Amino acid sequence: MATQALPDQVTIRKIRRRPRSLESYAWLFMRLSGVALLLLAVGHMLMQHITHDVHDASLAWVINSRWSLLSIRVWDFLLLGLAFIHGLNGFNTVVTDYLHNKSALKIIRLLIVVGGAIILTMGAVAIIGAPMPVK
Amino acid sequence: MSTNNLRVTLEQSVKYQGRFGQWAWIFHRLSGLGVLLFLTIHIADTSMVYFYPPLYEEALKLYKSVPFGVGEIFLMAAVLYHAANGIRVALVDFFPQLTTKQREMWGVAWAIFIVTFIPSAYIMGRGILRSLGIYI
């Protein structure tokens, strides 16, 4: 690739941009989701811990007050997806840096995908399926 | 072997003279991993609102305990640091001319962290004390 000489009779003027690799998409996703999470995740922390207090939280509060608002469900749904995938991809980066055994890496990646999908599904089903308060 | 890799990595991470950029990177990893650990537990317990509400009530009792409350102050620190430093990373990646301003941006990230974390920790700490019947 790098050592391959260009034929000298050709002058290449247009260099076609290489198609994005999967890793390049992951890189872009981390930046874009990171910017979104500045609002979603930091906002969530401020809502739960500064404007409210965890010590006042209850099941009834989640159903009657938080998840009675569609906007909060949408917020939580976006936060769930973006934060968890952002985190799992980051975890994959860390594991790839330190674990050099290829087959072990494959197993870990399989666990990340399968385990991640299960937990993500649980969260999504709960946010969508939890009942609205009875008026 | 993999454990040896980890040990070497940890040793070299401390010895390596990478200055602020290296520490920014180490803190970013540690805070990210910490938040992911909490997030995984948090998604599972919150989903019990739908799947098995009595278990959610149990989880809330745990959340209201003092050790968990202290852990949540650390969680707040991790989220705020990861956010402030992460925005610095994204800005430098998207606007390469900022590369020469890295040191200043690292300072700004820490300033944002300190200014947002200290009042947050105070309010959260006050909540823990209130749960023990101590009002400040």
Features:
heterodimer, A: mainly alpha, 3 helical TM bundles of succinate and fumarate reductases, 4 helices, 70% helix, B: 136 residues, mainly alpha
Q: What would you say this structure looks like, in words?
A:
The complex is a heterodimer of chains A (135) and B (136). In chain A, 70% of the residues lie in helices and 0% in strands. Chain A has helices at 22-51, 59-66, 70-98, 102-129. In chain A, helix 1 (22-51) crosses helix 3 and helix 3 runs antiparallel to helix 4. Chain A has a single domain (23-129), classed as Fumarate reductase/succinate dehydrogenase, transmembrane subunit (3 helical TM bundles of succinate and fumarate reductases, Up-down Bundle). The mean pLDDT of chain A is 91. Chain A has 135 residues and is mostly helical. Chain B is mainly alpha-helical. Chain B has a single domain, classed as Up-down Bundle (3 helical TM bundles of succinate and fumarate reductases). In chain B, 85% of the residues lie in helices and 0% in strands. Chain B contains 6 helices and no strands. The longest helix of chain B is centred in the C-terminal third of the chain and has 30 residues, at 102-131. Chain A binds chain B through residues 31, 34-35, 37-38, 41-42, 45-46, 49-50, 53-55, 57-59, 62-63, 67, 80, 83-84, 87-88, 90-91, 94, 97-101, 104, 119-120, 122-123, 125-126, 129-130, and chain B through 1-2, 5-6, 9, 29, 32-33, 35-36, 39-40, 43-44, 46-51, 53, 56-57, 60, 63-64, 69, 72, 75-76, 79-80, 83, 86-87, 89-90, 93-94, 120, 123-124, 127-128, 130-131.
